[in-house]
Amino acid sequence: MTAKPEMNAADIAKAVAGGQLSALAATEAALARIKQHDTVLNAFTDVTADRARVKARAIDADIAAGRKVGPLAGVPFAVKNLFDVAGLATRAGSKINRDLAPAKRDATLIERMEAAGAVLVGALNMGEYAYDFTGENIHDGPSRNPHDTTRMSGGSSGGSGSAVGGALVPIALGSDTNGSIRVPSSFCGIFGLKPTYGRLSRARSFPFVASLDHLGPFARSVTDLALAYDVMQGPDADDGACTTRGVEPVTPLLADSISGLRVAIAGGHFQKNVFPEAVEAVGRVAKALGATQVVDVPEASRARAAAYVITTTEGASLHLDRLRKRPNDFDPAVRDRLIAGAMVPAALVDRAQKFRRWYRAQLAGIFRSVDVLIAPATPCTAPKLGQVNFNLDGIELPVRANIGIHTQPISFIGLPVVAVPVPLEPLPIGVQIIAAPWREDVALRVAYALEQMGVVSAPAPRGF
Amino acid sequence: MAEPLDDYIDAVSKALALPVEEAWRPAVRANLEVSLRLARLVDEFALPDETEPAPIFTA
Q1: Organism's domain of life (chain B) (predicted)?
Q2: pLDDT tens digits, residue range A137-196?
Q3: Is B39 in contact with A348 (Cβ distance < 8 A)?
């Protein structure tokens, strides 16, 4: 058989393990699609074809020899270019990092994906140093939305959204500090998992905001998302914030009934500044889940403000020396934001960190009486590339500052979220399925149930 | 005419040895205004003296 673009990771792995499809054929099919379509999508910054073929041949040799292969055998995947890939400089969307020595060793999550049989085919475009919600990049050009290439992919993991949304690969990995997995998932119409803070190792990935950075997978189905998540779990001494909890597999639980779960709609901040598409998407998900209760999340706007302050100051700290030595090699918009971040008084940052503790306690209280909160992933569908403002209820608002207003108050306290795509016309939009800390299983089960009901799905790309 | 934050930007720029070219100043100032506005929003929220910060967040 041949690998078709609509084949999910689970289908590919099953066909490879069963001998109907070779890992090399699956890999070549992905490389061919990348070659054919990436000139338009601009999702990839590096294609690791030689490495991928070596890996695929090794899997085929294992199968030929009767050796057991992993649950992702022969599945092509790609990573945001802030993951270390042995032999490549980890550019993190920047010009400056291209001068770094090539990485000597892969990021932990790449090692774990490949240990499960997945085949790395490349590194993906992203917003400079991950300080971005648009997917635009001044050095590499924008990654483009697979449903309308004049529109944003979303950032900062824009290439990840574009590559999976465009069916170039079934799985990609990205990072999420304030929404950078959930925003591209929403704009590109795919599933994304931002796990609990500390769940997945960040070892050998380029950081942005240490106390807010998460890594996670993108996919075109919940089954694929769970497969990737399961193989990447587990402690890692190379990431100081990584949990010591053991692996808690979700795949075997996906089809468990969700009838006992208490689902509520996030109110207040999460129902403001939204376009009708976001209201429609949340409404469809709520109706399918029988959710009518609206829970006010106290001080969510202030939580978003605190996340902004911590982000801009920790980001400034990370880049301070580069700002001194190579200011003209930054995207000017990123540079000027970071310089301003370096000038915020320390007492105000400490206040933000204390507020964070208070806010965490409020959400812990909410999760004593509900199991899942649903909220928009973005206030709108994908804006046009370069768009500066949008008009909401007659008020002009800046696009960049408002794309992440519904994701920031959630990642601020590290809650696990699955972004699920609601296939509206003409463009899809995402909804956040939010669970209590360490309950990725609950969020993924709800996402799976919604997928089975036909309420959420990754639409076929048709923009190119 | 000098903007209210300009003296502050000059002083911190010097203290941190962080250059701010004149051409960048309006954007740096605009970003700083946003950061300080949002920081004030957090600052206005009364918290007990015993509140611990959460710089390394544990879920």
Answers
A1: Bacteria
A2: 999 999 999 999 999 999 999 999 999 999 999 999 999 999 999 999 999 999 999 999
A3: yes
Place of tokens 């909160």: A373
What is the pTM (predicted TM-score) of this model?
0.97
Quote the pLDDT of residue A400.
87
Whether A180 is a known active-site residue: answer: yes
Query: Which stretches of chain A drop beneath a pLDDT of 50?
Result: none
User: Residue A281 has which token pair?
Assistant: 């998407």
Q: How many whole angstroms separate alpha carbon A27 and alpha carbon A25?
A: 5
Task: Give, in order, the Cα–Cα distances in Å from A9 to each of A76, B17, B37.
Answer: 8, 51, 46
Instruction: Return the closest-CA partner of residue A338 out of A320, A317, A316.
Output: A316
Look at residue A28 in the predicted model and tell me its pLDDT.
98
Q: Do A354 and B17 touch (CB under 8 A)?
A: no
Task: Report how many Cβ contacts below 8 Å link chain A to chain B.
Answer: 123
* pLDDT at site B1: 53
Give the pair of three-digit tokens for residue A121. 């085919």
What pLDDT, on a 0 to 100 scale, did the predictor assign at position A2?
Answer: 82
The pLDDT, as a whole number, for residue A53 is 98
Q: Do B28 and A336 touch (CB under 8 A)?
A: yes
Neighbouring residues of A345: CB distance < 8 A, sequence distance ≥ 6: B39
* Residue A372 contacts residue A443 (beta carbons within 8 Å): yes
Min Cα separation A8/chain B (Å): 32
Pairing verdict, β A76-80 and A389-392? unpaired
pLDDT per residue as tens digits for the range A328-376: 999 999 999 999 999 999 999 999 999 999 999 999 999 999 999 999 9
Look up A156 and say whether it is catalytic: yes
Residue whose C-alpha is closest to residue A128's, from A172, A186, A82: A82
Which helix (DSSP H) or strand (DSSP E) does residue A178 occupy? none
Confidence tier at B57 by pLDDT (50, 70, 90):
low
Residue of A nearest to B27 (CA): A336
d(CA A45, CA A92) in angstroms, rounded, equals 11
ipTM beyond cut 0.90: yes
3-class SS of residue A352: helix
Q: Which of A94, A143, A156, A221 is catalytic?
A: A156
What's the burial of A57, exposed, middle or buried (CB within 10 Å: 0-12/13-18/19+)? middle
Closest CA to A219 of A246, A200, A254, A192: A192
Does position B56 have pLDDT exceeding 70, yes or no? no
- d(C-alpha A138, C-alpha A127), whole Å: 8
Q: Does B34 touch chain A (CB under 8 A)?
A: yes
Query: Most B CBs within 10 Å: which of A242, A313, A321, A336, as the mutation test of the B interface?
Result: A336
The verdict on B6 touching A (C-beta cutoff 8 Å) is: no
Q: Please indicate if any CB of chain A lies within 8 Å of the CB of B51.
A: yes
Query: Which chain B residues touch A360 with a CB distance below 8 Å?
Result: 54, 57
- Specify which residues A151 forms β-bridges with: A384
Strand partners, A422: A429
